[in-house]
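Question: what's this shape?

___
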Amino acid sequence: MSRRRSAAGAGVFAGLVIAAAAVGSVAVGSAGRTYSALQLPAWAPPAWLFGPVWSVLYTMIAVSGWLLWRNAGGIAPARLALGFYAGQLVLNAAWTPLFFGARRYGLALIEILLLVVVLIVTVVLFARRHRIAAGLLLPYLGWTIFAACLNAAIWMLNR
């Protein structure tokens, strides 16, 4: 793969991840205030922590997708893995408007549990082609599982 094509691919993956992040942030203007106003479990992280964590995770998600695509030599050889990758990005983008915008905590919990399942499949499919690409998704998977637990606790505390 040429250096130019590889760089263009990196830009595409960065753009996809930025778009997913932007959907969530545009749909919800004051997530920090909403979060702070909720009844939270004692183990809930402070609102300020989410921005730095997601910045690192989104970078890892973009690099992971790019590594897999580059290693496969394009989309066609890794169509299934990249399809699940795209699916998890869509689910990731959909959670924030459900949770913070619509304040549908139960529905958001179902959605994030689906995200966890799709993300697990994505990691497994990535691991078959590129272990580093799969490994870069593991912190995201861990954080998403934690977020699902937090979502469940918030739903129970705020019914």
Helices lie at 3-27, 31-37, 50-72, 79-101, 105-129, 131-157. The two ends are 53 Å apart (CA to CA). Residues 36 and 47 are 7 Å apart (CA to CA). The chain has a mean pLDDT of 93.
